[in-house]
Every structure is written in structure tokens, then in C-alpha cells.
Give the backbone structure.
Amino acid sequence: MYFEGKDEFLEERMAKYDQWIEEGKVPTSSKVVPVVEALSGLQWILPTQQAVEVIRNMRSFALANCGCRERYQRCDNPLEVCIFTNDIADQYVKDGKGRYITLEEAKDVLKKAHEHGLVHLTFYNPDQFVYALCSCCECCCHDLQFMKKYQRPDLIAHADYVAEVDADACVQCGACIDRCVFDAQKKEDEKVVFYQNKCYGCGLCVTTCPTNAIKMILRK
Ligand code: SF4
Ligand code: SF4
Ligand code: SF4
């Protein structure tokens, strides 16, 4: 879902990212991180790729309001879910726009975001590479809008995981269609069809599938 109409803020931001990518300063604007809950059976494989590990390895992190939802106000998803890191975190706290939190509090924030079906994205900038771990909705997030409104899926990197569906275990309930903002799960001719090439590996469909028909596997 996206909103029609010119959006100068998004277009300027997209141009900045295109320039940084062209100059080799960042590989993409952001990268999908799977929800922790989708990986429970796999956590020993690549723990550094989990959202919790992204922040655990930071010198400093702080919680702030979601700037995109404050700007666009298109949904009632939770506001206080943006986790900024290192120098950006310190600046947010100094400016009174964020507060330092413990790792346990960060886990609770990620859990709440997951319950609301928000996609975890790590954001890049040239100064400190990963500067934020966000929990994003498709109506307000700048990067998900780049993808949908401006047809720029290349600006978001896939997670290192991808979903795999066991067709025999699927009962065609359609819950995964509602969870997937990347349109990898679709209803066609009254059947739920999974397009693995469209899956970004967010893991959100895994945790609501009533028959555990979906699991995350390492992307080849
Ligand atoms: S990137 Fe996501 S969590 Fe961060 S401010 Fe935008 S929508 Fe909110
Ligand atoms: S949520 Fe699970 S059971 Fe339901 S349609 Fe999707 S894969 Fe099938
Ligand atoms: S199918 Fe969609 S919801 Fe499921 S992991 Fe892939 S991108 Fe996420």
C-alpha cells in the first residue's frame, strides 16, 4: 500500500542515497533483519544477523520516536520503536529526542514491533554505517515507500535468510498474505502462492502461520 502524489522529502532522500551508493559509501539504503521470533530454531547459525545482536554490538544505543510515523501519521503503529546507535544515539539523547535503554528494554521494543507486524530494517549512512535499527510500516517508512511508491526495491538489501513454505502443511488460511509487506505471498485463483524471489526475509509470516508451514532458511 502506498500513497499517490509528489513527495519532495522522499525524492530528496532517495537522491541522496543514490549518490552515496554511486560513490561507494553505502551498499544500499537499508537491509532487512529477520524478526528474532522467526529464527528460534536457527539462532546458533548466524547470531550476528539478528536484530538483538545488531544492537548488542554497538557502543551505545538509544530509543526514539519513529520519525516517519510522526511525519506521515498514516497508521496507529507504536511510535517509540526507533533504535539509534553510537554517535547518532548520543546526539539524539543530547538533543532530548531519545533516551538510552538497556538491552532488555530493546528486546521488549523489538517484541512489541513484531506483534504489530513491523519490519526490522538496519539503516546505513557513510559516517558510521549502521546508524539505526528501525521497525517499519509500509505506509510511513521512507524506504518501504521507495520500494512501493517509486518502484525501487534495489534500495533495500535482502536479509541473509529467506522463507520456505511447506505446501503440504499449508491450510490456505491467508494469514501470511496480510503479514507480508513485500508481496511475496499472494492469493491467485483462490490459492495462496509464495514467490520466494520476492521474499526479503523479514520473518513476519513465520510467526502467524497456524500450522508452522513456513520456516526461515539461509539464503543461498
Ligand atoms: S525507518 Fe521505520 S521505524 Fe525508522 S523512522 Fe521510518 S518507519 Fe519509523
Ligand atoms: S499462513 Fe501458513 S497455512 Fe496460512 S496460507 Fe500462509 S503458509 Fe499457508
Ligand atoms: S514471505 Fe514476506 S513476510 Fe514472509 S519472510 Fe518473506 S518477506 Fe517476510
